[in-house]
Amino acid sequence: MFVEVLVLVGAAYAGAAVRFLGLGDGMPGIDHFFTSAIAFAAAIIFSMSAMGMYQLNFAEGLRNPFFNKLMPSFAIGFMILTLLFYVAPEIQIGRGMLLVVFLIAAAGILVARTIFFKTSELRFLESRILFLGSGALAKECSELARRDTNYHKYDIAGFIAMPQEEALVPEDELVKLREGRSLASLATGKNIKEIVVSVENRRSGFPIQELLDCKLQGIKVTDAATFFERETCQIRVDSLPPSWLVFGGGFDQGFIRTFMKRAFDLICSGIILTVTFPIMLLTVLLIYLEDRAPVFYQQERVGKEGYTFRVLKFRSMRSDAEQGGQPQWAAQNDPRVTTVGNFIRKTRIDELPQILNVFKGEMSFVGPRPERPYFVEQLIEVVPYYNVRHSIKPGITGWAQVRYGYGSSAEDALQKLQYDLYYVKNNSLFLDILILIDTLKVVLFRSGR
Fold it and tell me: Which parts of the sequence belong to the Bacterial sugar transferase domain (predicted)?
């Protein structure tokens, strides 16, 4: 992204130079044009992010994402720039120049991404890792390390079997320590950069002193929970020791973070309420015409620290959706959803009235999805650490919503919880902005939840 910001700013200046080549007027003032170049770069980077061009899949290569996503990104960027030039005409770029800038930018991004993909295949960029353990946990971690879609590239040196652990990895990948040889000397000899501790039972024969020696020699030592978090952007809960949550980094909710998040909530909610108010009025009319009143519905949800509140949404289901009084999981293609409701759910218009919950301080704009007390009581019994997600305010959109599909079972709730815990642990203003960009992509392509 940083490289492509430079490419886009450079494209703006190159386009201006080409446009004014041979003309007596010369280029616009350098200070004035720098603002225009930054505005152009920001609009295109935002559009490319919304189109998912920074969620790279190495398996699909370069050609399809480039032509299928870059052109629509430029179209969205052009619309953003048109609105921006209308609001602030002093930073406007002429149409003729803008066309040249877009052509140079497309060529520049193609070259930058080609270099990136080619260099990512070079072997010296791979990180050589060794797994301590050979059981089910080690096997799962190694499968994560071998995925084609990884941002990190790994060269797996092998697995060290531990006592009283059944080996579930190929025998030819097992590494044996010779008599009198230390783990540190083995790691140094094999040029190991990282040791992943993937042992489920650490009570007997666990080489804590040898791992410390490895760390003191500059070899990175990572536990399986941290490795899983890094590679999947989730926090694994089915084999997570409580001490990891207590002593691990993150989970900070200090005054500065709380203040910044509240300011971010109010600013985002105010802007979106202003922009979408006509859409909300049209939605009210369409719901009433199809299924009459009530247009809104309120439902009890569990918020921060377990306190309940009533969430406000546009009604997307029939008024008799839960006739028997028994709460039901919402599902994809739910037959209870009305025609208008189906559209507003896929485009997330049904969530817009929750902005009022944000203004009241009951919700944040970004956070874990609030669930109904009936389901929370069930999930606490079967899903470990489920209550941890209630340590912060729930959100209109969130990490789990943009990374995972519809949740209609306890297993889905577990997967979404692992994303929620990642957000609770790592939440920041930057992550909130990334989630908002991903939410825009979800709305544009009707994917996610």
Answer: 261-444
